[in-house]
Design brief:
35% helix, 468 residues, 16 helices
Length: 468
C-alpha cells in the first residue's frame, strides 16, 4: 500500500509562499523520516503526603510549585556567578530578585538531549536535574513547575523548549534589552492601568475556501471558539470573510482593547530566494487579500497592554534549523522548497511576537507555531474526527477564561497531553515495522507528524501570566 493510497496525494500546511499555499507530495525518504527516532513523555506521579494541603498548580508563588529561569550556560563564569545570573540582562536579574531570588538553571548542549538542566551553586558542585524529578523550589534538587527561558533559539534551541514543556509550564523571552525592560516592568506591575477587556475577545479568521487549509482552520478553530464564547455570554467578535483584512483587524483591536486575541491564517514564508527578507517577514499574518500584516501600522493604532494572542499560522512563533519535518515531503514541491528555505535562515523567533512582547505597552503572551502546522492536527486523517477541542475548548476557552484564571503555561499543558499517546503510537508502529507488519510505516508517519506538530506550538512570554 502506498502513502498516497492511504493518506492522499498532498500534505497541506498553513504556510503562504507569496503566490500559493505550501503543499507537498511525499518524498521517497518519507518512510525513513517517519521511522527515525522517538521520545517518550515523562510524567511525575508522586502524590503529596496525606497530611499536606492540596497542591494548587496555578499558585506559582508556592514553594511546592515555583518559578525559575533558564539561561544559556556560558564559559568564563564561576559557579557562584552562574547561580546569581550575573550574565543575565538587568531586567531579568530584577525579576529573579523580585520573585524571591528564584532558582537559575542553565542549558548546556551536551546534557540537553536527555532533558537535563544544570543548576550551579556557590556552596557545592553543579547538579544535573530533570524537570520531571523533584518539583518546586525546596532543596537543591528541585525544579520549579514554571520555567522562563531567556534567550534566542540560537542560544537555547526550540527542541529543548519542546522537551521542557512536556514536563513543566514553559515560556520564552527573546527580546533585546529595551524590550526586556518594558516587558518585565509591565509583568511586575501586573499591567497596571491597562485597558484590556476580558469580556470582549477578538477572533480574526481568514478563509480562502476549501480545500485551502484556512477553511479548515476557520471551521475547527475560530468558529468553535466563537460559539463557546457566545454561549457563555461573552461579547466576542469574529472577523471573517470580507472582514478578514488587516485594516479591520487593526481597527477592531483599537476599538475593543481585547484581553484575548485569536487569529487563524496563512503565515508568510517567502521570498525563498532572499534570506534576509524571508527572515524579516517570516510568519506574518496573511489576510484575505494575501497582504502581509504591517507591524508598525498595527502598533500605531493599538498597544497590546497585557493581552494574550494565539496565532494559528505557519511560523508565527519562528523557525528552526534543521527543520523537524526535513525529508518528509518531496524537496521539489512547494512545501519542500519552503521547508528548505526557512531552515536556511537559521533558528529564530518571528518578528511579530518580538514586536508585541517588546512594545511600549507589551503583550503578556504569544502562543504560536515554530515551523508549519498541518491539517492532520486539526482533523484526523483516518476518520475525519475534529482534533481541536483540547486546544479550543479545554485550553483557550475553559482554562484561560475560567472564573479563577489559569496561568497561560498551565492552561497550555493540557494540549501537550496527547503527545505522550502519539509517541507511544509511534513506538508501536516502529516495532510493527520491525515485525514486517503491513501499513506500519504510514502509522509511524501519522503519529510522529501529529506529535511534533503539537510540540511545535510554544508560548512566548512568561508562563505565569493570566487573563485579567
Amino acid at each position: 500500500m502506498t502513502i498516497e493510497t492511504e493518506l492522499g496525494a498532498l500534505l497541506r500546511t498553513n504556510a503562504w509562499c507569496g503566490d500559493a499555499e505550501a503543499v507537498g507530495t511525499y518524498s521517497r525518504e518519507a518512510m525513513a523520516w517517519a521511522l527515525r527516532g522517538a521520545i517518550v513523555r515523562a510524567r511525575e506521579l508522586a502524590p503529596e503526603a496525606a497530611s499536606a494541603p492540596a497542591l494548587d498548580l496555578a499558585d506559582w508563588r508556592s514553594d511546592r510549585v515555583g518559578w525559575g529561569v533558564v539561561l544559556p550556560d556560558r564559559d568564563g563564569l564561576s559557579d557562584a556567578d552562574k547561580a546569581a545570573a550575573v550574565d543575565a540582562p538587568a531586567a531579568i536579574r530584577r525579576l529573579i530578585a523580585a520573585r524571591g531570588n528564584a532558582p537559575v538553571f542553565r542549558y548546556k548542549k551536551e546534557h540537553a538531549r536527555d532533558g537535563f538542566l544544570l543548576r550551579h551553586f556557590a556552596h557545592r558542585a553543579p547538579a544535573r536535574l530533570r524537570a520531571s524529578g523533584q518539583r518546586g523550589v525546596r532543596g537543591d534538587a528541585a525544579v520549579p513547575r514554571y520555567l522562563l527561558i531567556v534567550g534566542s533559539p540560537g542560544e537555547i534551541p526550540w527542541s529543548f523548549q519542546y522537551r521542557l514543556q512536556t514536563d513543566a509550564f514553559v515560556g520564552r523571552l527573546d527580546l533585546d534589552e529595551e524590550g526586556l525592560e518594558r516587558y518585565v516592568d509591565a509583568l511586575s506591575s501586573g499591567w497596571h492601568g491597562s485597558r484590556r477587556s476580558a469580556d470582549k475577545p477578538l477572533l480574526w479568521s481568514v478563509d480562502h475556501g476549501h480545500p485551502d487549509i484556512t477553511y479548515l482552520m476557520r471551521k475547527t478553530i475560530a468558529e468553535k471558539l466563537q460559539e463557546a464564547f457566545v454561549q457563555s455570554g461573552f461579547d466576542a467578535q469574529l472577523l471573517t470573510d470580507a472582514q478578514a483584512t488587516h485594516a479591520q483587524l487593526n481597527a477592531a483591536l483599537a476599538e475593543r482593547q481585547p484581553a484575548f486575541v485569536l487569529s487563524t491564517s496563512h503565515g508568510a514564508t517567502f521570498p525563498l530566494d532572499d534570506a534576509a527578507k524571508l527572515r524579516a517577514q517570516l510568519g506574518l499574518l496573511v489576510d484575505r487579500d494575501h497582504a502581509l500584516l504591517d507591524i508598525d501600522a498595527l502598533l500605531q493604532q493599538w498597544q497590546p497592554a497585557g493581552a494574550i494572542w494565539y496565532a494559528h499560522a505557519c511560523c508565527s512563533a519562528g523557525a528552526d534549523k534543521p527543520s523537524t519535518f526535513q525529508k518528509l515531503v518531496d524537496a521539489s514541491s512547494s512545501l519542500g522548497r519552503m521547508l528548505g528555505a526557512v531552515a536556511q535562515i537559521g533558528p529564530c523567533t518571528a518578528a511579530l511576537p518580538r514586536a508585541l512582547l517588546g512594545a511600549a505597552q507589551p503583550l503578556a503572551a504569544f502562543i504560536g507555531h515554530v515551523e508549519p502546522t498541518f491539517d492532520w492536527t486539526l482533523r484526523d486523517p483516518d476518520n475525519g474526527q475534529r482534533m481541536t477541542d483540547a486546544l479550543i475548548i479545554d485550553t483557550l476557552f475553559t482554562s484561560l477564561h475560567a472564573a479563577r484564571r489559569t496561568p497561560v503555561g498551565m492552561a497550555m499543558d493540557g494540549y501537550y497531553d496527547a503527545v505522550a499517546g502519539l509517541l507511544l503510537d509511534h513506538i508501536d508502529a516502529v516495532e510493527a515495522f520491525n515485525n514486517h507488519e503491513a501499513g506500519a510505516e504510514v502509522r509511524a508517519m501519522k503519529a510522529k507528524l501529529m506529535a511534533m506538530d503539537r510540540l511545535g506550538m510554544v508560548i512566548l512570554g512568561d508562563p505565569t501570566v493570566a487573563m485579567p
